[in-house]
# Entry
Amino acid sequence: MAYKIALNFEDGITRFIDANEGELVADAAYRLGFNIPMDCRDGACGTCKSFCESGQYALGDYIDDAMTRDEAEEGYVLTCQMKAKSDCVIRIAASSTVCKVKASTFATKVAAVRKLSPSSIGFALQLEPGAALSFLPGQYVHVGIPGTGQSRSYSFSSMPNEGRVEFLVRNITGGLMSTWLSDHATPGASVDITGPVGSFYLRDITRPLVFLAGGTGLAPFLAMLEEIRRLGTSQPIHMVYGVTNDADLVEMDKLEAFARDIARLTLSTCVASPDSQHPAKGYVTHHLPDSALHGGNVDIYLCGPPPMVDAVRNWLTGKGIAPKNFYFEKFAASEAGK
# Structure
């Protein structure tokens, strides 16, 4: 049996390796050409100390100078002494460059383009047969814009399904990607993607969750919810999806399906415009009940424009709530954002 190990490097690059039953993670990485920093192989130097964010594993022998028992209880590991017992996600304390890792580039074909609203476009790409693209729900890739030599970064809005991946992006008047998608993209057109990248991804669910999505910041949550539906969870999830105008509420059919299929998920939407006909007006914090915060025993995930991230942080401070974890991804209100 082999386990899939996600190695997340400091610069945001993620690569996946397969570690065989009983194989040391460091050996599996080296076998595949990923040079995790290491000065010994005996659990003595601590150079390969990393943090396991999810998964089950066994540790061999090591000394306190390399890693203390308290660190081990927190989830730190020595990859030279770690044997996976399940799929794992490991945060490596080094950049991908130091570890001689390059982001992978995949050739794809346009499978579909959908204009979801005046402000949003959805599109799907089909990977070439046999391509092995893996990523964590919430991560993104750099998507090449044909004929320009440029790329834009977009979060996956789905998990891979028979080699097909989906994206939800902002429609920007005059933008390179927006113009190409609207005017030139046809089924079968070639598009290269490079990645996966990003430290905004779903961790092991060990406590209640709050998901806060702003505009096309909905994209990574669609992938996260897809994975949660597949794996299941006993923890409650409260999601608030906020937009500027009524027409900006997109992919509601998918969200409503998730709300039906995931028993512990509660979903609410809101629109900021005072001219909105939506029953819930205002910002996401106006529609986040205290009960969803569980007194701070909660992991909060937020994806939206910088002012939204700052507003939520200030709102939490004002309420005296310090969540166990606050994961966020900001994107600028420009074509370069997701």
Summary: Confidence is low (pLDDT under 50) at residues 333-338.
